[in-house]
Amino acid sequence: MKNYLNSFTTVFTLLLVYLICLSPQPALGEDCQSEPIPGGGTITFSSDRDGDWEIYAMEGSECNIVKLTDNTFKDNLPAISPDGTKIAFVSNRDGWNSEIFVMDIDGSNVIQLTNTKDPYHSGHPWHSSPEWSPDGTKIAYTEGPAARNAQVRIMNSDGTGQRLLANSPSDCGIPDWINNYQVAFESRECSGCSNNYRIDVMNIDETGRHTLVDTNYRELAPRFSLDGSQFVFTSDRDENPQRKNDEVYIRHYHDLKCRREIVPRSEVQAEVV
């Protein structure tokens, strides 16, 4: 059953994953000692600790890590379904570009959801960044072959009903659900403004698109709390010459003047359930 962590606990847990991934890890099955995960629950993450990218689950503490995929392909970006029974993820195991798959929480019963020929005849498009709707009936994701700009699409959780939700003159993608009816995503409106990404919101019936965060900087990867009241995102607005990477910020959805920096951005991808 879904463990409804609040947004601050979720952020703290992701920071714990970041520290775990940076620290030396015992081999699977070796004895280890670890503090429990704040709030309990399961974390899924991707790692190349075995030489290629696989998906792992960590339950309770870092001593209880299970490898869910095991092959020579690149499996990453896991996203746990709201009921905790499925994991959507990205893989190139079909022999082409990245596609979206779903599997049971124990790594069994893998099903491919996306497999679309590119209408621009440049090969298969790549698909990435799957995110489940809060009710678990839909998945938002990014599609973007080299022949055209990246765009946000949605589909039913079984892979049917794939359709375009939003695009931009340059790029848009990395979606996240605010609720069952609205999706937030990063968007770049001109090809010449490489660092000028903003965060937009759109209803899933393709109406009501509006901008949530828009500066002269790179605002990326919005992630909303489970109640939709707050979100975190990355930005290079700091302009600190000592820190060349993006930083992570948190803001209230309906009070955009409220923001504070959380931590320098990491490349860790993790899902908590």
Structure description:
With 273 residues, the chain is mainly β. It has one helix at 7-22, and strands at residues 42-47, 54-59, 65-67, 75-80, 86-91, 99-104, 111-112, 127-132, 138-143, 151-156, 163-166, 171-177, 182-188, 197-203, 210-213, 219-224, 230-235, 247-252, 255-264, 270-272. The protein has one domain (7-272): Neuraminidase (6 Propeller), CATH 2.120.10.30. It contains one helix and 20 strands. The longest helix is centred in the first third of the chain and has 16 residues, at 7-22.
- The strand line-up of the biggest sheet is 3-2-1-20
Uncertain spans:
1-34, 265-270
**Briefly, what CATH class?**
Mainly Beta
The helix/strand order is HEEEEEEEEEEEEEEEEEEEE
Shape: globular
Q: Could you please say which CATH topology applies here?
A: Neuraminidase
**Helical residue percent band:** under 10%
Estimated radius of gyration: 18 Å
Count of structural domains: 1
Proper CATH architecture? 6 Propeller
Largest sheet: 4 strands, antiparallel
Mean pLDDT over the full residue set = 77
Strand content: 35-45%
What is the end-to-end distance?
8 Å
Supply the helix-strand structural class. Answer: mainly beta
The total count of strands amounts to 20
Would you identify the CATH H-level superfamily? Answer: TolB, C-terminal domain
Brief synopsis:
The chain has a single domain, classed as TolB, C-terminal domain (Neuraminidase, 6 Propeller), CATH 2.120.10.30. The chain has one helix and 20 strands. It has one helix spanning 7-22, and strands at residues 42-47, 54-59, 65-67, 75-80, 86-91, 99-104, 111-112, 127-132, 138-143, 151-156, 163-166, 171-177, 182-188, 197-203, 210-213, 219-224, 230-235, 247-252, 255-264, 270-272.
